[in-house]
Amino acid sequence: MLAKLDLAHTSPLTSEHARQLDGLLETLSPEEAIWISGYLAGFVRRAQPANAASAAPATGGTPITIVYGSETGHAAALAERAGELARQKGLTATVVDTADFRPQDLKGVKRLVVVTSTHGEGSPPDTAADFYEFLHSRKAPRLEGVKFAVLGLGDSTYEHFCQTGKDIDKRLQELGAERIHARADCDVDYEDQANEWIEAVLGFFSKEDGPSTPKLSVVQGTGAGAVPSASPHPHAAVVHDAKNPFPATVLESIVLNGRGSDKETRHIELSLEGAGLTYEPGDSLGVIPQNDPDMVEALIEALKLDGEEPVPAGGAEIPLREALTRHYEITALTPRFLELYGNAAQAGKLRALTAAENRSELMAYMAGRQVIDVVTEFPVEGLGGKALTEMLRRLQPRLYSLASSPAAYPDEAHLTVSVVRYDSHGRHRKGVASTYLAERCDLDETVPVYVERNKNFRLPADGSTPIIMVGAGTGVAPFRAFLQHRQETGAAGRNWLIFGERRFRTDFLYQLEWQRFLKDGVLSRMDVAFSRDQEKKVYVQHRVLEKGRDIYAWLEEGAHLYVCGDANGMAPDLHAALVDVFQREGGMSREQAEDHLKTLQREKRYQRDVY
Ligand SMILES: Cc1cc2nc3c(=O)[nH]c(=O)nc-3n(C[C@H](O)[C@H](O)[C@H](O)COP(=O)(O)OP(=O)(O)OC[C@H]3O[C@@H](n4cnc5c(N)ncnc54)[C@H](O)[C@@H]3O)c2cc1C
Ligand SMILES: Cc1cc2nc3c(=O)[nH]c(=O)nc-3n(C[C@H](O)[C@H](O)[C@H](O)COP(=O)(O)O)c2cc1C
């Protein structure tokens, strides 16, 4: 039993809370009290709003500012993890989203850690655009005396791999800051490399500060003196994430396109009953797919492998066939695969292509080709399953915008999936996850899923705020969720949807539902752009230009503008169309129009979810 503390006089608690806590403390053993202290530390951290900069307890040493630029949440999660680890090491660390980082904040920073992904075609995430621009502008301050390190996230199948991380790293050095650790350019399998990098960077700062006693009471481990963290709570709910997905039962899977369409877009309904998963309109569902068994067999046959050979996968040794089905990307080519396979095959052509100076030739070779093309063109005798899996990267989850609102469909998740199928280099190709969902997930079977939050694609908190939604193809999915949510919550704000697809007759996704929303007055206005119904292609950006006067008027009245869908063609064209509209309707110069759009973005009134 612990000695009674005079909490009513020594704490900020109300006298009632102080009395209750004093009473509880009297009954606790020291072990129980230690456990509760760890539990509360974790509880408080988890209760902090996700978008707030998480301040650290003052523990001495020069404070570290960890700034992240993230679109789909990976860099944000790593930055938060780095902040957490810094605090466990007794360092002072603050984690800030680039979207909330004001240029003037850079002045006081002495230790800067940047964690950023790359999006678009080598551009910063939308939320990091201002930060990136400011750093590269003439207004950026000199940074002599600042110690920095940059962690880049990307995907090596893109031509501009980790470009934003590279640019920021270079720029910080140009501004006079001192790089204390080499930049890491992490591919989609980033966990191990990123964790090692974070350890090394924080290790540097710890060493620089000299020995200090960690003050935070959350310490990993169970040895003597270790304080348990909040996670071992015996009744804590199971958390479903990419590593521990929830098996969601398929309730519905129907093709939305009409007969004769050259597209297959599926509406898929999944049951989340019992998952304890919550989501908001704007979030995505992560799907852990399996590879096409025909492709698995084709690879095994092409390389004369033994499908039963035990190989390492997911922390265990399992038969090669299962490993290729569930654990490795067996279609997408990466520069790393081509380099390793080129060496094994002693293929001069592949070796030349993977030389650093031949990046554009390498990208041209990779376009439309897959692993099966390479192993067929350059066969290797006796490669073995283990050697093959060491060359492949881990199978990645795919994200799908949630097309339902939990307010309308509690315990369900609806998706709108465009099934990827195309021909290239003489072969028929199938997208891994979209054909897994379309062809191999029958009704009543389960699909492993988790929720990927997107705090940068949110309905306005005030339901009376008008919204304009621009969605092309499957980009309309989150707007179905938005409208359901606005209907269920009785939000009074006006809703305008601008939808684009190929053909009115076959590709008007969810046509009846929009008509119902119009009839019920939920949808105040709808405009459509069917690109292939007339000789001249018409896209959503053309509708935006055409309806510019009304769009400008809505925005002037405080509307929020949302854009979802294709990142390469639609999003930049739409952005340009909006600039045109502001020039024309607002009498702005090009520069003022660009600035106006940036201001809307900063105020979270212009949000994009493009892929
Ligand atoms: C935040 C977010 C939300 C998303 N929401 C949705 C959504 O709501 N609905 C949806 O359908 N998708 C959505 N996606 C895309 C989705 O995650 C997958 O990328 C998509 O389904 C393809 O995955 P796959 O495994 O089927 O194809 P993969 O096996 O990953 O193959 C796709 C690759 O094939 C190649 N390829 C595709 N077409 C061609 C072609 N014609 N010629 C040559 N090469 C080609 C490209 O390299 C492409 O990257 C979203 C993505 C993100 C990041
Ligand atoms: C639409 C889109 C475009 C992307 N463009 C690039 C790119 O040009 N270069 C790159 O290295 N990675 C690119 N990526 C990969 C992301 O950087 C990678 O998935 C990263 O882990 C995302 O981190 P985030 O969730 O913090 O944004 C792109 C991803 C998406 C979805």
Quick rundown:
With 611 residues, the chain is α/β, with parallel strands linked by helices. The model is unreliable at 45-58 and 215-235 (pLDDT under 50).
Proportion in helices: 25-40%
Main beta sheet: 6 strands, parallel
Hetero groups in this structure are:
flavin-adenine dinucleotide, flavin mononucleotide
What name does the CATH topology of the largest domain carry?
Rossmann fold
Please give the structural blueprint.
Elements: H1 7-10, H2 15-27, H3 30-47, E1 64-69, H4 74-88, E2 93-97, E3 111-117, H5 129-135, E4 147-153, H6 163-174, E5 178-179, E6 184-186, H7 191-209, E7 246-255, E8 265-271, E9 284-287, H8 293-302, E10 310-313, E11 316-319, H9 320-326, H10 335-344, H11 348-353, H12 359-366, H13 371-377, H14 385-391, E12 398-401, E13 412-418, E14 421-424, E15 427-430, H15 432-439, E16 446-452, E17 467-472, H16 477-488, E18 495-501, H17 504-507, H18 511-519, E19 525-530, H19 540-546, H20 548-556, E20 560-565, H21 570-586, H22 590-602, E21 606-610
Parallel strand pairs: 1-2, 1-3, 3-4, 4-5, 4-6, 17-18, 17-20, 18-19, 20-21
Antiparallel strand pairs: 7-8, 7-16, 8-13, 9-12, 9-16, 10-11, 14-15
Helix pairs in contact: 4-7, 8-13, 19-21, 20-21, 21-22
The structure holds flavin-adenine dinucleotide and flavin mononucleotide.
Residues 70-76, 117-122, 125, 153-155, 158, 160-163, 188, 567, 611 line the site of flavin mononucleotide.
